[in-house]
Structures are given as C-alpha cells and as structure tokens.
Automatic annotation (TrEMBL):
UniProt-listed Enzyme Commission number(s): 1.1.1.95
Domain ACT intervals: 456-528
Matching CDD domains: ACT_3PGDH-xct, PGDH_4
Any one biological process term the GO annotation gives: L-serine biosynthetic process
Lineage: Archaea, Methanobacteriati, Methanobacteriota, Stenosarchaea group, Methanomicrobia
Keyword NAD in annotation: yes
Functional pathway: Amino-acid biosynthesis; L-serine biosynthesis; L-serine from 3-phospho-D-glycerate: step 1/3
Protein name: D-3-phosphoglycerate dehydrogenase
One of the Pfam families matching this protein, by short name: 2-Hacid_dh
Gene behind this protein: serA
Amino acid sequence: MNYKVLVSDPLAEEGIEILRGFCEVDVRTGLSEEQLIKIIGEYDGLLVRSGTQVTESVIEAAEKLRFVGRAGAGVDNINLDAATKKGIIVANAPAGNTLAACEHTLAMMASLARNIPQATASVKKGEWKRSAFMGVELNDKVLGIVGFGRIGQELAKRASALEMKVVAYDPYINRERAKELGVEVMTLDELFPVADFITVHTPLIKETKHLINTTTIATMKDGVRIINCARGGIINEADLCDAIAQGKVAGAALDVYEEEPPKASGIISLDQVICTPHLGASTVEAQLNVAVSVAKQCIEVLKGGSAKFVVNAPMIPPDQVERIEPYANLAQKMGKLLIQLVEGRIESVEVEYGGKTAEFGQNTKYITRLALKGMLDPILQTPVNIVNAELAAKERGIRVSETITEESFGFTNVITIRVKTDKMEESVSGNVSSPGKPRIVKIGEYMTDMTPTGHVVISRHHDVPGVIGKFATIIGHKNVNIAGMQVGRNRPGDEAIMVLNVDSEVPQDAMDEIVQIDGVFTAKYAKI
Ligand SMILES: NC(=O)C1=CN([C@@H]2O[C@H](COP(=O)(O)OP(=O)(O)OC[C@H]3O[C@@H](n4cnc5c(N)ncnc54)[C@H](O)[C@@H]3O)[C@@H](O)[C@H]2O)C=CC1
Ligand SMILES: O=C(O)C(=O)COP(=O)(O)O
C-alpha cells in the first residue's frame, strides 16, 4: 500500500527520514486553511506543530486521513471532536519538549527579573543606561506555578535550586510529588496574593481561558511578574496590558499570544513586556524528540496498529499493555462473531467483566471499544476504530454499558458480551487462559471451548439422533472440511448447540439447506 503523509509545519529532518523509509512524504509549510483543504484529500497522515490549524473543514475534506500527529504537546489547534467523529487518530509527543519549555520559562523569568532584552536593545543602540535597568533577584522570591504537570514539575525542581520558594496550584495535583519536590500546594486564591512571579503551565481549555484577568490580577501582590510559556488565551492580554500600565504588574514575559503572531500595537508594545515568538519547544533536542515520536506513531497507525500517545481515545498505560491487549484482541473477535450471529437492529451492547478482570480498572474502556469495533466495523460504511467506536454506537442509538461481576463460571478472568436486538438476544463469553490462547468459552447458555479464528458454523438444534449426521453430510457435499466439532447441551433431549470449525467458507446454499433440517432451529456461518 502506498501511503502519503503531509508535513505542514517545520519538522526535524530525523522524523521526516523515518517516514520516508515507509511512505511518500510531502513537506509543505505555511499553507492557508484553504490550500490545506484543497490538498488534504490525498493524504493518509498529517503531521503538524502549532502553526497549522486543523479545523473542522480541514477534517471534513480529509477523505483518507487516518492520523494527525502533533509534534509537540498542545493539541488546541486540532479539532478533536471532528477527528474523533471521523475515526481519525490524533496523537501528540507530550514529553519530548518538556525540558525545552521548562528551560525557556526559566530563561524568560531570569530575563524578566534583570531586564535583559531591554538592556540588550539599549546597549546595541549605543546607550549606557545602567540605572534604568535595575532588576530584582530570584533568590528567596515566591514562584507560583499554575498547572503542575510535566513542565510545572520540572520548573519547580530548577526554581528550588535557585533558592526560590515554590508554591503550586493544579486541580489534579499529585500531592506526593509536590511534597517530594518541596512544593507547597495551594488554592488559586491562596497562590495569587503571595507569589512574586506567577507562571502558567496548563493547557488552554474552557476552565483556563482568561484565568488571569482584571479580577484575579487585583488579588495579586503589587509588582508581581507574570510569565506565559504555555498558551495564549490563558491570560487576558487586554487586562494584563491595563494592569502593567497602572503599575500593578511590574512586567510580563510572553512566549505565546492570543493571536499568533501578535499585533505590534498590542501588549508587546509595552516596555515592561519581554517576548519570544513561541520558542518554548524550539531546541534541537526537543525537535528531534517530537519529530521522531510522531513519525513512529504515524507509521504504527498506517500499518493498522495504535499510537503510543493517542489523545482522542483511551490509552493503555505501557506497563499494562501485556495484560490488557490479549483481552482487547479477544473482545474484538467476540464482537465480530456476535454481529454474525444476531439478526435485527442492535439496541444494546453490554460488556460484562467477570472474575479478576475487575482489576483491569479504567482499561475496560479500551477493551469495550474494541468489542464495539469488532461488531460495528463490518456493518458500517465509515471505518470504525478505537477512536470513534463509542460515538458510532451512540449515533446509531445503541446503548453501551459495562458491568463488573465476580461471577466467572470457573475461569480466573472472563469477558461476556451481550447483544440485544429488536428480534433476539445473544451472548458470548471469552477468556485468555495463557498468553496467546484466547478462547470462546460460552455461547448463550452453553459452555464451549472454541478458538476464535477462521470459519465457524454455529447451530442450535433439538438434541435428537441424526441431526448432526445430516449437517455433516451437507457440508461434506460442498467440499468443506470439518476441522473440529463441539456439542453442548444442558440436558439430554433438550436444545443443544453445535460449534463446527471448518477449513473454508460454507456457501449460502449449504446454510439454507442446513436450516431446513428437521430439528435445527438456527444455523449461522461466521468468519472471525
Ligand atoms: N511554548 C511552547 O512552545 C510550549 C508550550 N507548551 C504548553 O505548556 C502547557 C503545559 O504542558 P505540559 O506540562 O507538558 O502539560 P501537562 O499535561 O503535563 O500539564 C498540564 C497540567 O495542567 C493542569 N491543569 C488542567 N486544568 C487546570 C486548571 N484549570 N488549573 C490549573 N491547572 C490545570 C493539569 O492537571 C496538568 O497537571 C500546555 O499548554 C502546552 O501546550 C508545551 C510545550 C512547549
Ligand atoms: O508543544 C507545544 O505545546 C508547543 O506549544 C510547541 O509548539 P511548536 O511545536 O513549537 O509550534
């Protein structure tokens, strides 16, 4: 298969080389939205940084696109809802530029404290104004970190080494980690009045938009200095401008802006504001890291696998992959089998996690999505994958639920998928007894022991002599070899189930004949 990937922002050559070893790569930077919309239909993958706006219209025009890779952390320039709806995997490289952004923040803070950019410009003009650039020390000052994630934590370590007192706010803060780093955890209301320097390291989301504004600035220390190396929009620039003009805020260091590039007449025109053009991630080391990371993830996805840092679907933590992945694969096969066994419009899908699968925790969401993919992908026009499986079900009015039970009919771990349609109900249960040994252990009420692979015929019939023989004769006449057979029943003479593993497809006319056999209630052929 000849894949094509578009790189629409500057990406380190090392990443592009990795991609070129796998597929065709076009590097076209500086495209307008209109230009991007015109060409995106040709591509299977798109790699961006913060310069490209991957809007809903771009996603709409992307006929073949399966992967959008963000060579960096922030994904606020990508319309995740639109991508999710279309089943496009969006992944980033979250840790690759952490240190670059952290060091840039430190550099900005030191430059702000000592007026280095303003002094540099003055000296270059031939001036020698030593008293005009009196600074403040970082030593002993309180640094307030808002957003204690990767960058916030790295910054705390370094600021402590400079003998600053570090305080932090994050609604999801890891208190243990904060304690280890000697950081005092505060609420925002507590942090604002005590900090000499305030630096934001949150994503730009609804909750953080204009987090720093006239009202919150009023609660800050007089002469506070503010740094934003995270995202424009976390600070209300107009409000900050006023506060600097009034002398409430002594200065600001900005790497990111509400509009990029920022207007020359806006906040950057103030002498007390120092600025860089979104350079937080611009180090040789960080660019190599993020480019290689997204290139590798892109290849994995185009090969049919998953990406390591998917942002629009549940992910399995790396240390859980070995345990969860076999069940996820099994669930997908169970879903694929079920959809071939049922008739009618699906109303609900229930995935029950039995025995010790309760220990899977949040990872059940990943497994459930793969069960839905197995079930819905064969019957829907739009490809269904881990990203859009849940949405695809919801859009078709299918209720999806997960339940957890200790009940496991003798197995350590067991997953049961129950499908209810407007005509019937069916269920299958599966287990992975040892690595690489997935089994279907129950179909409806009947225990089985079936490998979920290849061609199968599953019938329900009256448990009376002769039925199985007639069955085998019909299949034999079609030259279909029977590889294995299991019969399950609850009581002699009752309804029984038969699972036949066969070596090739059973033609429809043979299936039609089988259902005509006296005593056969249902018979379904399925390919897993
Ligand atoms: N200037 C640049 O070139 C760069 C900017 N960034 C930006 O820096 C920011 C942080 O990046 P990372 O530390 O890697 O992300 P992260 O995801 O590791 O940390 C973000 C933290 O913000 C916290 N948070 C969420 N909502 C919050 C709220 N309402 N108030 C306070 N905290 C909240 C989260 O709990 C999380 O701990 C992102 O916006 C990212 O895009 C990242 C790299 C380079
Ligand atoms: O990783 C991030 O969030 C950044 O803001 C870096 O942006 P960039 O890749 O340099 O355009």
